[in-house]
Amino acid sequence: MTAGCSVGSNISEIPSNEQNDYKFVLLGQSDFICTDLDNKRLNISEIGKVITTDDTITVNTTKFASADIDSDGTEEVILWLNINNIDDYGFEILHYQNADIYGYTVPYRGLMNLKKDGTFIFSSGAFDSGIGKISFSETGYSIREQAYIQSEYDSNNELNIQYFINDEPCSENDFINAVNAQDHKPDVEWYDLSENNINEILN
Q: What is d(CA 76, CA 70) in angstroms, rounded to the nearest whole number?
């Protein structure tokens, strides 16, 4: 993933009222609804609670970005989580719905190489991975698979690997071409999570 970068253009795809709601959450001036904690309201200063109740574990949000991950025409704000100084732990996605901000915790391997169009790479193993987007509800999220590999062992304990694009079987070469095309899409821009950046980008 791309590291933090300097502030570029504003996030114009987020309507102004939603920009303010995201901004207030990032600045700690309002809370968000944490779907991982039975929709308990949390302040960003309590972000560690989405990961653990162990006070000896340090959880920080180091960077943020925006992308329309669910293709509803409005961008979400994605927080990059740092756990005990480890950057590849996971993310908190902030999604606007029902006039409120909902938070969804996603593991690092569930949202890799996020692109500006909101697509990303997900993986649950070497032979179970793909390209996806996300659907949100008031209680959780699900990954909409656009292209993926599926593996299973048959009755002879031999590993069978199948390739799919838009839920239709495809060849390995077609799948590789889809992944190569995904790699060439522009990466999302990540910004250091600072008050100056929040105020300038979400204005």
A: 8
> Residues 98-115: pLDDT tens digits?
899 999 999 999 999 999
Distance CA 41, CA 158 (A): 47
163 within 8 A of 174, measured Cβ to Cβ? yes
pTM (2 decimals)?
Answer: 0.87
3-state secondary structure 44-88: HHHHHHHCCCCCCCCEEEEEEEEECCCCCCCCEEEEEEEECCEEE
Question: Do residues 93 and 78 touch, judged by C-beta distance below 8 A?
Answer: yes
Query: Residue 55 has which token pair?
Result: 């006070």
Read off the pLDDT of residues 41-92 as tens digits, 9 standing for 90 and up.
Answer: 999 999 999 998 888 899 999 899 999 999 999 999 999 999 998 888 899 9
Contacts 24+ apart (CB under 8 A), 8-11: 8/189, 10/200, 10/201, 10/202, 10/203, 11/66, 11/75, 11/201, 11/202
